[in-house]
Design a protein that fits this description.
This protein is mostly helical and 177 residues long. The protein has helices at residues 6-23, 30-37, 41-47, 51-76, 80-97, 99-104, 107-111, 118-132, 139-157, 163-173.
Length: 177
């Protein structure tokens, strides 16, 4: 089995970013990325099984600092509705910054190889942040917090205005109407 060097993975992700920025998602190919790195396409395929696998690695890497920022900001939010507003703003910004990728491929297709339940893990993280600011902590509150997380993700996917979801979020979180 070939030796896997993390440097090649990191450089490949950066080359993908560069090529998307210069020519768009469609112009970035495994062959062109390998060429930019000075390696063969076959070598690149030892690191990433497909272009989608490379894209997923880029998205997951880009998500890490956003996730840390969200966790810090959630601590400062006074209530669950504010947590939802903050989550929505950050998710929308992340989605917008990766628009060329998300518009070309289904995010579920891109992220399917990042382990079972990427969407479920994201919902769980969001649910916990929302639940922490809710007064009730019973099973119904857990379900309501999870419903808010799903609503926020659907809102980002459909590019809804946050205000259009606010009544439902406040109903679910027990916040002000």
């Amino acid at each position: 089995m070939p030796k896997i060097l993390e440097e090649v993975r990191t450089r490949a992700i950066q080359a993908l970013r560069n090529q998307i920025a210069q020519g768009g998602f469609e112009k970035a190919t495994m062959r062109s990325i390998a060429s930019e790195l000075g390696i063969s396409a076959a070598t690149l395929y030892h690191y990433f099984a497909s272009k989608e696998d490379l894209i997923a690695a880029m998205i997951v890497e880009d998500w890490k600092p956003v996730s840390e920022k969200i966790r810090e900001e959630a601590e400062q939010c006074p209530d669950a509705e504010e947590v939802c507003a903050m989550l929505y703003t950050n998710l929308l910004a992340f989605s917008s910054s990766h628009q060329s990728v998300f518009s070309s491929l289904s995010s579920s297709d891109i992220l399917k190889d990042q382990g079972p339940g990427f969407h479920s893990r994201l919902v769980s993280i969001m649910k916990d942040m929302i639940l922490e600011k809710m007064e009730a902590k019973d099973e119904r509150a857990v379900q309501c917090a999870e419903g808010c997380a799903e609503l926020l993700l659907a809102g980002v996917r459909e590019k809804r205005n946050y205000e259009s979801m606010k009544f439902a979020i406040n109903t679910l979180t027990g916040g002000k109407q």
